[in-house]
Specification:
Elements: H1 14-21, H2 43-56, H3 58-79, H4 90-126, H5 133-163, H6 167-175, H7 179-185, H8 190-200, H9 205-230, H10 232-241, H11 246-284, H12 286-298, H13 301-307
Helix pairs in contact: 1-12, 2-9, 2-11, 3-4, 3-11, 4-5, 4-7, 4-11, 5-6, 5-7, 7-8, 9-11
């Protein structure tokens, strides 16, 4: 008569397996784990995932973006438009135009930098490996010259597309939408980032269009309000209506508009990053790589020793 053998088994926590899987290097924008479920998403699911990531890290992302925008907003009352005064001479108006142009350029540069910082923070958080703000700032600063070149090239291509009966503009905007995220995350050249953006975006036009429309609807109330406050007539009306010291009013406006731009930058950056991750999943099978990495970690000698199975 046979007798079953006694077995003794020691189980290790499941998070040890996930930790082993996350030890794989991130190369070429690989998404290995943490973005559960890592799978192709439709437009609504991409937006839901982006809003979940934003809500879970709202204080961090919005706070970082608001602080980045703060210097630009401080420049606004110094170089930008001032409350409108009747009888202002031409030299004063010309000076305001130049100052406004400088503030606009500074805002465009800061927007590009803030998007890169948000992309780095969200991308790593989506893998279950959140990075520090210092790491994101250093990475974005190293990649900023290339990001600036990409922004300029994208702007030139968009203007050319707009001149060609508008439709080419949407094509260019769609095909280059991923270039900034790719360059911020992956160790690639500018040309490779542009090329990968064209490749990864294949078959994603409808998703991109839906995401772009929703992003515009979400962001325009914040950026539009800031633009309205910056208008000289609005500044003049506030100066006459709000009976407080002008310096105090400017401080309040700088803080409030920085916060509003922080919300806008964080929202747009998170949505763009999640769209980038979805394109990686669809075009390069990153969800399959994540599963393979997890299974490989589960079968690795390290995990086998940790399980301590013996008969």
């Amino acid at each position: 008569m046979s007798r079953e053998r006694d077995t003794e088994q020691s189980l290790s926590p499941l998070h040890d397996v996930a930790r082993l899987a996350r030890r794989e290097q991130v190369r070429g924008g690989q998404v290995e784990s943490g973005f559960a479920p890592l799978a192709p998403r439709v437009t609504g699911e991409i937006l839901d995932a982006a809003l979940d990531l934003l809500c879970g890290r709202a204080a961090l992302l919005i706070g970082v973006c608001a602080l980045l925008w703060l210097p630009v907003r401080i420049l606004q009352p110094i170089l930008g438009v001032q409350p409108w005064e009747p009888g202002a001479d031409m030299n004063a108006l010309l000076g305001q135009l130049v100052g406004t142009a400088l503030v606009g350029i500074a805002g465009a540069l800061m927007q590009s930098f803030a998007n890169a910082v948000v992309t780095i923070l969200v991308f790593h958080a989506a893998q279950g490996e959140p990075q520090s703000v210092a790491f994101a700032l250093q990475r974005a600063l190293r990649r900023f010259p290339g990001l600036l070149v990409i922004a300029i090239l994208t702007g030139i291509a968009s203007m050319i597309g707009m001149a060609l009966c508008i439709l080419p503009y949407f094509y260019v905007a769609w095909k280059l939408a991923l270039a900034t995220s790719i360059y911020a995350i992956e160790d690639v050249s500018i040309a490779e980032a542009l090329q990968r953006s064209f490749t990864l975006s294949i078959g994603s036009f409808l998703r991109w269009a839906g995401i772009t429309i929703v992003t515009f609807v979400l962001v325009i109330p914040y950026s539009g309000l800031v633009g309205g406050v910056d208008h000289p007539l609005v500044l003049g009306w506030l100066s006459e209506t709000v009976h407080v010291d002008p310096a105090v009013m400017m401080i309040v406006l700088v803080v409030c508009t920085s916060l509003l731009m922080g919300v806008a930058a964080a929202s747009a950056g998170v949505i763009a990053t999640v769209f980038y991750i979805d394109c990686l999943v669809r075009r390069e099978g990153r969800d399959l790589r994540a599963r393979v990495a997890t299974l490989a970690a589960a079968e690795s000698p390290v995990h086998a020793r940790a399980s301590g199975t013996r008969t």
